[in-house]
Amino acid sequence: MPEAKLTLPNELANTLQKDLVLHHVMKTDWTEVLFVDHPQVFLPWKKAMREQAKIDASNLQIVFERFRVRKGARILDQGCERYTDPG
Questions:
Q1: Strand runs (DSSP E) across 1-86, as ranges?
Q2: Is residue 50 within 8 Å of residue 4, measured between CB atoms?
């Protein structure tokens, strides 16, 4: 499946850029700026990925069944883990 590309209107891109800078200090959590402060940026991509999500969920179910992961078990998705700089 080809990757979905999202093109932002200039006005929205400018708003995002301004919101990343707060009082001349760069916000460290860009994900909060993008997904919380401006969910409208992510929404078109999220809607476009609905069908792929159904396929992915079905494939994960097969993997979980093969490894006997019990129904209702909690799964850690490390790709969504927040990174904290140890330094």
A1: 21-22, 25-26
A2: no
DSSP β-bridge partners for residue 21: 26
CA 30 vs CA 18, 21, 44: distances in Å: 12, 10, 19
74 band by pLDDT with thresholds 50, 70 and 90: confident
Q: Are 34 and 16 in contact (CB under 8 A)?
A: yes
Residue 78 lies in a domain: no
Question: In the chain, how many domains are there?
Answer: 1
> What is the reported pTM?
0.47
Domain hosting residue 33, numbered range: 10-72
